[in-house]
Amino acid sequence: MAGEPLVLVVEDEPAQREVLAYNIRAEGYSVMTAGAGDEALIMVKETPPDLIVLDWMLPNVSGIEVCRQLKTAPETSKIPVIMLSARSEEVDRVRGLETGADDYVVKPYSVAELLARLRTQLRRTRPAAVGEQLEYEDIVLDMAEHRVYRSGDTVTLGPTEFRLLTAFMERPGRVWSREQLLDRVWGRDIYVDSRTVDVHVGRLRKALKTTGAYDDPIRTVRGAGYALG
Question: Fewest CB atoms within 10 Å of the CB: 123, 142, 176, 212?
Fold first, then answer.
């Protein structure tokens, strides 16, 4: 389903990698996997995930080094990283967090605990994905009820416009290119002409200005894309 969070699992042990991927998919998330650190860095550059579950001990490039590189690059620094490690010593935990990891889970761990921590990180970066209510100025988007309100008035949106508005409201001010919106709203495996984005943004704008008294909250950034506010 388009719009669901994408989680990258980086684990060199195949059985462990499959168990993690299976359980994360069962939570309703998309998953891609890597078995080595250098492979993970290439994948993140090609298809940035919403969250990374990263094993410390990896061949070629260690998890610590992968985390360091991701957190020092502006384009990937905001992606949450949950570090997995058999190292339970406090000094290792501190080193993992100092490298930029957002959370640190010691092996062996319960899958339920890892999923809870995963949801916590996504709540921060993709609040709509965990059923939160989003608010921007006078617009309220209720994920649980799948409804949108503006100054208390109900706004009627189609499914695509709802997903578009969700993306905008999760990151107010962020400029989204048409390609990024296609990935987030329509899905990475579906071919849609980028002009389709313009059509649906137009429909979303029209719906948000239903009474004619409301301002258009969506900004067109020439040569770049669209932004909320």
Answer: 212
Confirm if 88 and 106 have CB atoms less than 8 A apart: yes
Mean pLDDT in the chain? 86
**Is the Cβ–Cβ distance between 124 and 80 less than 8 Å?**
yes
Residue ranges and CATH numbers for the domains of the chain are 6-129 (3.40.50.2300), 131-228 (1.10.10.10)
pLDDT tens profile 94-140: 777 788 889 988 888 888 889 989 988 888 777 766 667 888 888 98
Provide the Cα torsion 156, 159, 162, 167; round to 10°: -170
For helices 159-170 and 195-208, the axis angle rounded to 10 degrees is: 90
Distance from the Cα of residue 58 to its chain's centroid: 24
Phi and psi based region of residue 155 (left: phi greater than 0; alpha: psi -120 to 50; beta: remaining): beta
Instruction: Find all residues with CB under 8 Å of 66, minimum gap 6, and list them.
Output: 10, 37, 40, 41, 54, 58
Contacts of residue 100, defined as CB under 8 A and 6 or more positions apart, other chains included, come to 67, 68, 70, 71, 72, 77, 81
Q: What is the pLDDT of residue 213?
A: 67
